[in-house]
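In response to a reviewer's request, we include the raw inputs and outputs for one of the modeled complexes. The four entities were modeled together in a single run.
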Amino acid sequence: MIATQLPALQIIIPLFAAPIIVLVRRSELAWIIAVVANLMCVLVAWKLLGLVNEQGIIRYSLGGWAAPTGIEYYVDSVNAPLLLLVAAISAIVLLYAYHSVKKSVDSNKHYLFYAAWMLCLSGLLGMLITGDAFNVFVFLEISSLSTYMLIAFGSDRRALTASFRYLVLGSIGASFILIGIGFLYAATGSLNMLDLAQRIPDASSERAILVAFSFISIGLMIKSAIFPLHAWLANAYHHAPITVTAFLAGTATKVSLYVFLRFLFSVFGTQYNFEYLLFNVILLPAAVLGFLIMSVVAVFQTDLRRMLAYSSVAQIGYIVAGISLATQAGLTAGYVHIINHAMIKTALFMSVGCIIYRLGHAHRPSLDNLIQTMPLTCAAFIISGLSLIGVPLTVGFVSKFTLIGAAMEKGWWMMAALVLVSSVLAIIYIGRVADVMLFRKQRLPNPIPQGRNEAPLSMLVPMYGLIFMSLYLGVYGSKTLAVASEAATQLLGGFR
Amino acid sequence: MKLYPRQRHRVLQVITKLIIPFVMLFALYVQFHGDFGPGGGFQAGVIFASAFILHGLIFGLQHTRSVLTPTMLRVSMAVGVLLYLLTGVVSMLRGAEFLNYDVLLHDPIHGQHLGIFAVELGVGITVYAVIVSLFYGFASKR
Amino acid sequence: MAIVMNGKKITAAFAWVESPTAVHMAIKILAGLCALLFLLDIIIHRHTYVPGEGMWGFYTFTGFFAFTLIVLGAKQLRSWILRDENYYGEQSVDSEEYPTSQLDIQNEPAVDRENDQ
Amino acid sequence: MTWLIPPLIFFYGAFLCLFVGRTQRTFITLLAPVIALVSLLMLPMGNMAQVQFLGFELIFIRLDKLAFVFSLIFIIAAFLAAIYAWHVNDKIQQVSTLLYAGAALGGVLAGDLISLFLYWEITAVASVFLIWARRTPAAYATGMRYLLIQVGSGVLLLAGLLVHYNDTGSILFEHMGLVSTGTLLIFLAFGIKCAFPLMHNWLQDAYPAATVTGTVVLSSFTTKMAVYALARGYAGEEILIYIGAVMTLFPIFFAEIENDLRKVLAYSLNNQLGFMVVGVGIGTELALNGTAAHAFCHILYKSLLFMSVGAVLYRTGTSKASELGGLYKTMPITMVCCLVGAASISAFPLFSGFISKSLILDASAKNGYYLVWFALVVASAGVLSHSGIKIPYFTFFAHDSGKRPAEAPMHMRIAMIITASLCVIIGVFPSLLYQLLPYDVAYKPYTTSHVLAQMQLLCFALLAFVFLMIKGIHPPEVRGINLDSDWVYRKILPTTLSAWAASAMSVANTWRIGLQTQASEWIIGIRRLSSPGGLLAKGWGVNSMVFVVTLLLLLVLFLNLF
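The model returned the following structure tokens for the whole complex.
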């Protein structure tokens, strides 16, 4: 019986946890409830993935109302792996968060923090799992609102402005999506994605569809921080509590990208003729400029969080580059990088979190010789950094390799070359940090206390768990690639 | 926002005391009539909250806070959401989909009745608590 | 000849190298050897692949002149490309000393000058 | 068995070294090559350790005679370097040495381009720590330059292999030849590591900056791995002959006037690589045998030379010829070993260089490359000048510098003596080496005409040296830097860039904005835009963000609707 209820449980568990946390209020208990709920989510997502692999698409009508009328949850090989990814990353960061949150967030607000986290998680999972266009918007709002709140928990006042800027941009994005869905509804009379995909080809007004398409694309581009619309991201990632940054970096933009993929390929996918323009005129330049310019910007940043934030935008550029190829190989590359980058970036932000936990800052020039005091943290940063660069045997290599292969397969040599150029930039910005950590003699009088001063074990263990997971998937890259290629086939084939 | 001290505006204070019960009653009407006529949890919640907001405007925030403490608001918020979710979960436990009210009682029509009723009550409680919290939040800012 | 090492006098194994007679002798031996090799060319017929290789004294001339030209060429090259050691500033290892903490320098200053004479 | 292949043994050693104390580390560095040797000898010929990766079949072990001879000498070199580095108590150096040696070994054994690329990059990353381990700002900067170039080579290799795969559908690492863009890119990648002319400068830049023991290790692997790769992929490619000829000639002049002895050796390394590249270019069985043999001998005697100069540096704190001299008095054993190395590299009969170099010379002569042959003969005289005479003469003899260093430590002496003996043994019993070579070619190095010709060449070159010294024509050793192609990226680029920047500042207000200032403005602009607070990097205000959103929306709507 449980098996049939899994899609609903995926959302309900974190949603349930939130009010209970508010009622309980004690911070330790709140954390425990959040962790337990999150682990259950992981379990559910794991089961769902297994079920999808076994029996194909799973559909779940909410409230017993059948599909085109009611809201439907729809799990296939595209979103099932992402459900697991988001739930797992959230769980890992949450396990890691306890000490970090204790230090950076006011103790009588912990329960609100974890409640918001749970809401955010259920919003993200909801965006992934739902098969209803309007429901996507609802879950988008749930996750966004709780995200604004989480960001505003940041320790200094700039967190508030960062959160506010994100709120304005995020709301614009969300309303664009809403407008687009409205147009779609007006043109087709349906909100169910599956139904939409069938109705769009013979919709009464093609213009309405086009307008809907434009609005939804732009809205989702804002939410997924694709290059010229990325400006909210750096501040938000910089000033939010570092655990929130780690969580968001691995999940929020990735989920938006998934919705983008869904709309592009599954919903509108039947009409390639007008998407051609979007792919070649908007997405491709955005992707290429994104990963080049943002990598350059990352090189010059002095704060690690900002550096990684810009590098995130650059990495999203790779994903979009894969998407804009619009081929099986390209989508596989984009999809696999969604998974891989989520793991890499979360691990990187977690290691920065350890640094901040001990030093109170993440200012690159003052991390002289950090390896002496925090060897494990530095090792984690460097290993994940190598993965970001795309050194062989890491997940970064798997995605970059497939991306370059896909670009070449389509004959876009230039793009393949530019991807390599941007990898060199990644070497530079990660190298600058590694250099300071490993080799720089202490120049300032006493910036870092001497002797071992490693972050607590409760932070290190989840971080290394994630790193080992990503290393494993780097060595056995064909596993994730198989998943991604299955997803790409599903996306290109439209709804089945 | 300027809050009026207690000893002034006697007329307003007396009238307010008279009105508040009716506002609440109307809110409850909108709440429980929602499944048949216009209304429902959102509207009812806002109307219910407006009773407290009016109280706060006339008698001062301190006074209202002692009537309806922030702790109660917090609990109401959580309870509202839980009520909503529990309704869904009960239908799940009875072997149907989440929020499928058909199975709540012996026959689908009564089940739908009860389901809507419970869910809307949850919504109402949460909305009122959130609106009052917003009022507290803004009003206590100088 | 004796030199002082760690306060003790020791005898250098190859001290004879520095005596002027030995140097002269060595040069004479080398000259003799060269003359011999030069003459051997007449007696021994070398097996050759390259035209001109079998020419009388080919290797001797090549050796001598190639060496001379290389040295002269290098000298000229130096006049063009020699720069101060600090030319590249801090970016260059040429302008810095090897960090002595990583070495085990046991270097007695030459106090044995008088003993030598 | 897959888990006990030779490269992995080195990696296991490196991993173990991370966790154990000093004594154990030293033993691990010694033991790893021994176990790897046993493992190598037990491997059957053919392909092994095939692994599926991203849908490709990687062949981590492809053992044939060519790979075997290179693997063998790599393992020997690692062992000798470990003895020499007995005193080192530096985890970073020991770990990176093992990683580096293992990766170089892996590169030689790799049977496909992807695993080659893998090892190619590991050698780059692992070896740079041997430079950084000097722990000075200059060493850091040098290491960074080295790393950029090495990784650049890896990137070229990756690009090339992708193009090649796209063209042919095969990632097997076998003979390719210069036939397409892909193979050209791979060729360039190999060329950088092999220090082709104008791509050579990382070698002279980086090797003198490494630690005493690091240079010994560095000199053995990277370039020889590249030579192997060329021999595998581009044997018989004619252009290599001319590249090789240029490589043998031009470093001689630089080596002749260079003051830092380790840099002299780096130049001479470049020159010796030239011989090997010529051998690859000719590509006949004889020539490839010559290349393999020369690589084998060269690793030994070049290690020996670096060891002896390193020992001098270790005892005196300098390796500059102008600061040294007269050390024979207190370092006689080092001096003798250095002389053996010098004799070997100069290819005196009975020393190892003689028996390997003649193979390549004969191959070029037999195939009619007379001009190249002559260049090699001239270069042989040149080798004598800088490595054969200059290194020992200015270090151990010449004018007395007044330095009285102690003899090299025991372990260094042992390492040098073993290496020197190997040089002599191979020189005296060439068949020991010849039977390892990839092809069965009956070749006799010790014929009268060979010995006579070589002796004539060398003795008259020596005579010229004596003559030039007596006449005072031979250039004295002076301190200084000699410019080389690295001048472009170390001096011109930085200075012109800053000059451009300066001129851009001064003439920004005037009408004179030419191409140069434009370019400089771009550079300044990128920096300004990208630094924290710059346009691209600051958090934009809400207004500008919304403006961009609107603009993009209009663009998309316009494109879609019209």
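As requested, we also summarize the result in words. The radius of gyration of chain B is 18 Å. DSSP finds five helices and no strands in chain B.
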